[in-house]
Amino acid sequence: KLCAAKRSLGNRKTLYCCLTCHPKVMCGFAGILNDSKLASKDQVSRIAGCVSFRGPDSTGVRVFNENFQQAEIGTSAVFFNRLAIIDLDTRSDQPFENDRYLLVFNGEIYNYKDLRRKLEGQGVRFATTSDTEVLFHSLIQFGVKALTLLNGMFSFCFIDKQKGKFLLSRDRLGIKPMYYAQRNSSLSFASELKSIIKLHEGSFDICHEAVEMYLWLQYVPTPYTAIPDVYKLPPGHYLEGTIDELRTGRKFESKPFWDAFEFVANGKETSKPNEFESILKESLASQLNADVPLGLFLSSGIDSSLLASLVHKYFSSDRVFNFFTIAFRENTTKDESAHAQQFIR
């Protein structure tokens, strides 16, 4: 899978793509629903500022009262830090909303153009050229079933303000992060663990079991985190409910919309070894959509070298791609720049 991170080079924005997907690239959001401690717009804006590196292009903050009407102080709040890649216009800033629905979405929907055509055939009219609006209308039209139509990397929260319903979801492979916590009658969610901590403004203990897991495995497995009662939404899962259910103290459990083992066991994977190159080509074609210049990270590894060669073979005739690698002044075996330079020649 490709992931993308945009950086500024003077006045020029360049999109870099790499195989390893770092959780701190491409936008970020957080929110809290039905909190007994009233949140102010200034407070939420300060929390958004603490993770502004996730999206330097714009920040959107919304605070709602218990009837989900916008307010300066309220019981529910969301923020979104945007890293603009598709449709750079402010019309695609987030939270993306109308009078009834609201969406905060981190990631990219690779098949958004196909989904857009499908929605237009059903009479949906679009005001932007973004994948955000396509996801927004897909969720309005199809509800949870829309998740099975998505090809991409994503985490999002979708809210029906009129009915007080919410839907959290994460992509099939868990490329995009989603943390959540239920405390008392509130639900918080975020792209960053620190955002959940700041939203609750309370002390959090360290989960000793998570420390043991980390020392044993060198990571904390899903759904656990380093903090008790704060969880990672598993890949290919969603969480849905209502504000009324939160008020009753109901505990929510995530549900799968896709399972890799079931997918293989049911024989749904039909590709053959000789189709590998065409599958990669098709995947690259869908992931090289951007309204900023494109570039690729290149190490001496098989994965990035293979992608570089396919990009050059199939996509460089009418587009210019820059290739980047990392070098060290120190003498170290970690420096792969010489091998990368040799490959690119």
**How many helices in DSSP terms?**
10
Helix content: 25-40%
Order of helices and strands, N to C? EEEEHEEEEEHHEEEEHHEEHEHHEHEH
List the uncertain runs: 1-24
Let me know the largest β-sheet: 6 strands, antiparallel
Bulk shape = globular
Instruction: Work out the radius of gyration.
Output: 21 Å
The assigned structural class equals alpha+beta
How many E strands? 18
Strand content: 25-35%
Distance between the termini: 25 Å
Strand order of the largest sheet: 5-7-3-13-12-14
Explain briefly what this protein structure is.
With 345 residues, the chain is α+β, with helices and mostly antiparallel strands. 28% of the residues lie in helices and 27% in strands.
Report what the structure shows.
By secondary structure, the chain is an alpha+beta fold. The chain has ten helices and 18 strands. It has a six-stranded antiparallel sheet. The protein has a six-stranded antiparallel sheet with strand order 8-9-10-11-15-16. Helix 2 crosses helix 3 and helix 8 packs across helix 9. The longest helix is centred in the C-terminal third of the chain and has 14 residues. It is globular and about 60 Å long.
Distinctive features:
globular; disordered N terminus; 6-stranded antiparallel sheet; 28% helix; 10 helices; 345 residues
Please describe the topology of this protein:
Blueprint: E1 3-9, E2 12-18, E3 28-33, E4 39-40, H1 41-50, E5 58-64, E6 73-74, E7 76-82, E8 96-97, E9 101-109, H2 112-121, H3 131-142, E10 152-160, E11 165-170, E12 179-183, E13 186-190, H4 193-200, H5 208-217, E14 230-232, E15 237-242, H6 243-247, E16 255-256, H7 260-265, H8 276-287, E17 294-297, H9 302-315, E18 322-324, H10 337-344
Parallel strand pairs: 2-17, 17-18
Antiparallel strand pairs: 1-2, 3-7, 3-13, 4-6, 5-7, 8-9, 9-10, 10-11, 11-15, 12-13, 12-14, 15-16
Helix pairs in contact: 2-3, 8-9
